[in-house]
Design a protein that fits this description.
Blueprint lengths: L4 H4 L2 H4 L7 H4 L32 H11 L6 E4 L1 H13 L6 E4 L6 H8 L3 E4 L10 H7 L4 E7 L11 H10 L3 E5 L21 E6 L12 E4 L2 H10 L7 H11 L2 H22 L5 E4 L6 E6 L2 H10 L5 E2 L9 E5 L3 H18 L1
């Protein structure tokens, strides 16, 4: 690998003078703030929300860094992981020239942001076992491929990608490898966070939406070298993470034991639900999962989906997605929700079998 970050960055981004906010120029504590054109009288909600938030979220990054054993300088926080994906493409892909690679079936926003930014999207489908097609990757990746997007555990399939395959790509690809670990907390495979120092081209995405149960806050994480994070900080909006989100996330991080307990419960429910599904005559296959959902192949997925919807239960119909023919993606619910779902599926089975 001949990785050189400087050759990947768009020329206009290299030359960009980032916006300097009032909170960038003064980072200390003061008794009177008259520098940011805020409303000094407060707000109807609380006297605190009249002030702009920390643009680089240092308190939050320090606490995240302590939990993940990573330097805060290696963390960028985004308005959901979606913003992080967008920033990566905007920073490193020249519109109308460069391309990114995705491996469907996978998370759809990689392609959406490629299209938004006028960056070509090369699709190299997974193999039938939902693993990377290493031969096709070698053939299709070219000099204009700047970013490879991998999702592990993968959405919507739920499985981990082979760790050895990811390591092989990291060792031989001269561009950036973005590894989306949104579901890593539910996985038996360890995160690649500890490998960031070994692979300068590795970028990891994680989120507060899944294991932390904070989807409404829209808080995503990019973990990468300080050099990559510095580039992304140049182009992110100055106040992309609001004060309320920062405050609530800080409180959540003080409850790590509770989160770990929820993860254990979800994993146990996942295994119980997978076993129960396999006993149903309408179920053809339950795909192995390391996420907080199951991909389940059923007889007549459209009919099952419509029946569940009529009972007030909503799952995700993935039957029209490549390599997911006849499949429903089912999130692991509470124990009661899972029991209700099973009862509804048993009723459907009794009516059609």
């Amino acid at each position: 690998m001949n990785f050189d970050l400087n050759t990947l960055v768009r020329e206009n981004i290299k030359n960009l003078t980032p916006y300097s906010s009032a909170r960038d120029e003064f980072k200390g504590e003061a008794s009177i703030y008259l520098d940011a054109n805020e409303n000094s009288y407060g707000s109807p909600l609380t006297k605190w929300y009249n002030r702009y938030p920390d643009p680089l979220q240092w308190s939050l990054k320090q606490k995240i860094g302590a939990i993940k054993n990573i330097d805060p300088q290696n963390i960028l926080l985004g308005n959901g992981s979606d913003e992080c994906i967008d920033l990566m493409i905007r920073a490193f892909c020249e519109p109308g020239k460069d391309n990114i690679v995705i491996c469907p079936p996978t998370y759809g926003m990689y392609e959406v942001y490629g299209n938004i930014n006028n960056v070509a999207v090369k699709k190299i489908p997974l193999l039938r076992n939902y693993q990377l097609d290493m031969d096709a990757l070698q053939e299709e990746v070219d000099a204009d491929t700047k970013i490879l997007f991998f999702c592990s555990p993968n959405n919507p399939t739920g499985n981990n990608l082979n760790r050895e395959d990811i390591e092989t790509v990291l060792a031989h690809f001269d561009g950036l490898v973005v590894l989306d670990e949104a579901y890593i907390n539910f996985s038996r495979q360890r995160s690649f966070v500890a490998d960031l120092k070994e692979y300068p081209n590795l970028v990891i995405l994680q989120t507060f939406s899944k294991a932390w149960g904070l989807a409404a806050l829209r808080l995503g994480m990019t973990l990468a070298s300080a050099e990559i994070i510095d580039i992304l900080n140049k182009i992110k909006p100055p106040y992309n993470i609001n004060s309320a989100t920062q405050e609530l996330a800080l409180k959540a991080l003080d409850n790590l034991d509770d989160v770990n307990g929820m993860i254990q419960t979800i994993v146990a429910e996942r295994e119980a639900l997978a076993n129960a599904f396999q006993q149903l005559a309408i179920v053809e296959k339950v795909h192995p999962s390391d996420a907080n959902f199951l991909l389940v192949q059923v007889k007549d997925a459209n009919a099952v989906y419509d029946y569940l919807k009529s009972k007030g239960t909503i799952v995700r119909n993935r039957s029209n997605v490549l390599l997911c023919e006849g499949c429903l993606r089912i999130t692991i619910g509470t124990e009661k929700e899972n029991k209700d779902l099973l009862n509804q599926l048993k009723q459907f089975t009794a009516e059609v079998v």
